[in-house]
Every structure is written in C-alpha cells, then in structure tokens.
Amino acid sequence: MTLSEKQQLFAVKIAQLILWADECGLRVTFGEAYRTPEQAALNAKKGSGIANSLHTQRLAVDLNLFVNGQYKTRTEDYRVLGEYWESIGGSWGGRFKSNPDGNHFSLEHNGGR
C-alpha cells in the first residue's frame, strides 16, 4: 500500500472513530493532526515526542475528548476509544510502553506507531 493510499484509509478510519464516539455520546475535537518535521524534531529534543512521528506523514491525530462537556486528559479516559480504534486496525498511543499517550490515534507505517 502506498503512503497516499494509507493516508486515505487513515482518514476514513478516523471518520469511523469520530462517528462511533458520537454514537456513544462522546464528543471529540481535533488536537494535533499534522506536525512538521521541524516541530517533530523540536518535540523530540525536549522529550515530548519523537522525531519520526507519524503526524509528519499524516498518519496520526491527537483527539481531545469531552464527556458531559468536561475535557478529559488521562490516558485511561480514552481507553474505550483506543480499544475501538484498535478493533478497526489502528494503533492507540495509550499502549505506548514509555509515555502512554491516550489521545494519540495512528496507523502503523514502516515500523512507526
């Protein structure tokens, strides 16, 4: 599958996730979707990300979760979304061994998550 085809698949899967969340009464907004390689390098330097982030390839998005109007920030708050995302073929940042990132949803590509 080409990168372009994978990006298109990712967009459809993110739409599925958002619609599923809405059906469950969960509200989401977009956090960071695209990240420049320069920003990814800066994030890696300060320890808040990695240089080869899938955000730079448009294969990752950070979503902000709201439950009953309240913004949720803990990885555990995102578990139901993460488990659904995994069930449709995605990789959920809540499973990252170091620095779990509950609001991160991506498609694996060339070994990246």
Task: Give a short summary of the structure.
By secondary structure, the chain is of the alpha+beta class.
What is the element layout, followed by pairings?
Blueprint (H helix, E strand, L loop, with lengths): L2 H21 L3 E4 L6 H9 L14 E8 L2 E3 L6 H9 L3 E2 L11 E3 L7
3D structure, described in words:
The chain is α+β, with helices and mostly antiparallel strands. The chain is 35% helix and 18% strand. The protein contains three helices and five strands. The protein has helices spanning 3-23, 37-45, 79-87; strands at residues 27-30, 60-67, 70-72, 91-92, 104-106. Strands 1, 2, 3, 4 and 5 form a five-stranded antiparallel β-sheet that branches. β2 (60-67) and β3 (70-72) form a beta hairpin. It is globular, with a radius of gyration of 14 Å. The model has no long low-confidence stretch (mean pLDDT 94).
Keywords:
single chain, alpha+beta, 5 strands, 113 residues, globular, 18% strand, 3 helices
Average pLDDT number = 94
Please provide the ordered H/E string of secondary-structure elements: HEHEEHEE
- Number of helix segments? 3
Rg, nearest Å = 14 Å
Cα(first) to Cα(last) distance is 16 Å
**Record field, number of beta strands:** 5
Low-confidence stretches: none
Q: Please estimate the helix content.
A: 25-40%
Strand content: 15-25%
Q: What sort of overall outline do the alpha carbons produce when their principal axes are compared? A: globular
Largest sheet: 5 strands, antiparallel
Structural class: alpha+beta
